[in-house]
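Progress against Task 2.4 (sequence-to-structure conversion) is shown through the following example record, which the project officer requested during the mid-term review.
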Amino acid sequence: MIQAQLREQFPVESTPVVPPSQPGFWAGLRLRQIAMLAVGLVFVLVKSYESLQAFFLAHPEVKMALLGSSAAAGLTALGALGVLFTRRISERTQDVLLGYGGGIMLAASVFSLIIPAMNQAQTLGYEKTGAVLLTATGIMAGGLFVLAINHLIPHQHFIAPNPAIQAMRTSRIWMFVMAVTIHNFPEGLAIGVGFGGDDVGKAIALATGIGIQDIPEGLVVALALRSLGYSPWKSAGAGILSGLVEPIGGVLGALATGVSATALPWALAGAGGAMLFVISHEVIPESHRQGHETQATLGLLAGFVTMMLLDTLLG
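Structure tokens generated for the chain above:
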């Protein structure tokens, strides 16, 4: 009785006992979902790897094209990373390097693409005149294809600014990346078409030549961006990014030749025409705009001879 009265006069605040915290239903559900997603992702990756292995076994030319074009893209990245160690190279040296790359592309388009296209057409039963006409049509189609890409995709040249691009709000660095991407896609396409053909030696020579010219090209691109005020890492990253399209072109080129035997001469000639367009529209004008035409031309001759020797020794 007395205790009850005391409790009424002097109430004591009791602290509620909180049970140990445990994950709620939804938290546990999220954890289970994440675990299931991870397991599903691993399963998809394993199955994708198995499917790719089976696909490459059935289509070894696509695997070779992917490896060759990826190696070329890697050499583009290697050249672009050179900007981290080189502050600047002279305009004359840039023009010589551009001319050298143009010479390699010119010889590659002739010896590794256009001439094999005519030979392949004759192998399929075309007479000499028919093979020449087929190859000529393919060359024009390849050039017109790159011309269409040039018109559809806005891009910025390094030396001759595009007034229409200058007025756009889009960052100029992406316009430069687009320009080099348009340049590199036909190179990857040519590598893929080369491996889709019958002469692996010529395909290896073609991939080697394009890879060699990708090194100075990546460096020149990164240095051009560096001279515009971009940081070394951003300049190198843009150069690396521009080369990632080459493996895509390589796979597409190899797949195009695998459609049927009759597609091979068309694909070879088209890739050659695309490269010829890039040489005339991009590489040579860029190397001549700063007043070093003679040095750039000598670089082009050196590049042509380099690729001719590679094609002869490896092809």
